[in-house]
Amino acid sequence: MPDRILVVEDEVALRETLEYNLTRQGYRVTTAKDGPRALELARSEQPDLILLDVMLPGLDGFEVCRILRQETNIPILMLTAKVDEIDKVVGLEVGADDYLTKPFSMRELLARVKALLRRVRMLRQELATAPTPGAPSQQLQHDDLVIDLERREVFYRDELLHLKPKEYDLLRFLAENRGKVLSRDRILEEVWGWDYNGGTRTVDVHVRWLREKVEPEPANPVRIVTVRGIGYRFEG
Ligand code: CA
Fold first, then answer.
1. Which domains does the chain have, with CATH numbers?
2. pTM (two decimals)
């Protein structure tokens, strides 16, 4: 089954170029030219990846991304044009997985698409090779926080948390290195990979999100502690 990609772009020429090139690479492509239609198609088609332009009629790409993030983990690659947009996406405040700035080369775009899809496939494989239900699974437990490594599930105070893939990866990495000071660069490399170019602010944003979920008082963290000037340390 070919991977399915939803292309959301209001500029006709770019939309058609993207559709043409992605189709030629063997992807199955659906297109939308405004925000509301993008939401509709993302829900009905459940694509494997979404290419999302920021400046769109109806509902902009940030809004679309924010809404979709509440519903799904489909990887989203944002296409940005302006510097302030890049800033927002780099901070990943809207939950995008990656971004590309216009103008970009088709080669670069195809490489990013491929990388994101590969990540998703690896994640699915991990899930598929998870042990059968009922079998004892490997866990990391720190007080009232339980990380099920095989199911990629996290429970806090007996409740299942809804974590994004990167939030889970980050939490797992921190928890596996309990008590150690981890620099932002090290975290970025381990969790996002050496080829990620979003910058260390990504780490801070994800830590902030995680704290909202796993700290009794997110404003006064006792579990994911900031080590000034360096990075973070996980306290069990
Ligand atoms: Ca546009």
1. 4-128 (3.40.50.2300), 139-234 (1.10.10.10)
2. 0.57
